[in-house]
Amino acid sequence: MINVGIIGFGTVGTGTARILLENRALLRERTGIDIILRRIADIDTKRDRGIKLPKGVLINSADSLINDPETHIVIELIGGTTIAKDFILKAIRAGKHIVTANKALLATHGKEIFSAAEKAGVEVGFEASVAGGIPIIKVLREGLVANRIKAIYGIINGTTNYILTKMTEEKAEFSDVLKEAQKFGYAEADPTYDIEGIDAAHKLAILASLAYGSQFSLKDVYREGISWISPMDIDFARELGYKLKLLAITKETDGKVELRVHPTMVPEEYLISKVDGVYNAIYVEADFVGSTLYYGRGAGDLPTGSAVVSDIADISLNIMNNSIGRLQSIAKNRKAVKLMKMDEIVSMYYFRFSVLDKPGVLSNISGILGKYNISIASVIQKGRREGKAVPLVVLTHKAREKDVQRAVKEINRLKTVPEKTVIIRVEGKEKV
Hints:
Radius of gyration: 24 Å
Number of strands: 18
Number of helices: 14
Largest sheet: 12 strands, mixed
Number of domains: 3
Structural class: alpha/beta
CATH topology of the largest domain: Dihydrodipicolinate Reductase, domain 2
Strand content: 25-35%
CATH architecture of the largest domain: 2-Layer Sandwich
Helix content: 25-40%
Distance between the termini: 62 Å
Shape: elongated
CATH superfamily of the largest domain: Dihydrodipicolinate Reductase, domain 2
């Protein structure tokens, strides 16, 4: 018998409790262990969550739950990086194993938490911290253990994927779709973490830490959000054969790892470009298995609760089989990995210049691009407004970020370019 306690009875806490109660017999059948929900701690013990708990399970003291000698596993589901961290470290010191869905905490204070757990001889499960119901942590930690990870591309924030999908389908403005997303509960009242790429960056830091055996944090991830994306750029992307997604990208090249989250144009024939709405998908490229894609619901009470219970089952089996530490945490065997600076990355690029409709403008721009070793793959110029600004779209072959930024800075100084140039990075094979 294994007793578990949940701190935080919100959306994911409720989903986790429901699974533990309703599928208790199934879990016992599959693991051979009776996993019992012993306690739930939350400051609000009165609100109806639509779930019937056994008498005495819901309490208002997290410390009582942590200090209960009969509780083996503590599940932290309150979020944030302050109180949650305190509770987790207290539980570790009390000899409890930990399960958490808290990507922000792990991406900010993961090194401290994993080191404390290793010292105390307890385990930390964090499957639910990335991509909800998609078991991507288990894939990287176990399923692909025989492979070197070459690259990961992830749609790992459902809010931004929903917004970009609606903008694409309805040719709608960002601000209008955001309001709709908030109305239907797909976006928070304060959507900053989602739309500015912070949530995706937290998750990418965790994935890259597993993939490359190091410890990365939020500060290591280059980040751009989607609030500046316009329907015009989505339409031009479609005309060029691409779809626009907020991608979390990590690659290892010549011993250096790049970590970046930003809007990205992806070839429309790629499977990951077809992932729409609130769904998540993670594409992993490895040396022996090749390319694999993982798809599903990246958030929600039951998908995320399913991932939490997966960790509970794993740790319960380790406890019963006296195999704590069977799965090495990212605190063990860490190695120093060099980060690739953003200006070193190589990518294809989409530029949308706003230019005055005058002779010689394109040749001036192409001359500056050539000066910085940037080769043009495609050009789109529509509309004639003599003497007025019109869009000029350029798709490049592969170029270095540093060269791109220098070239665009020089182009933006031209009198024939009255507005700031839009730059979007492009992934996929170069088009001939």
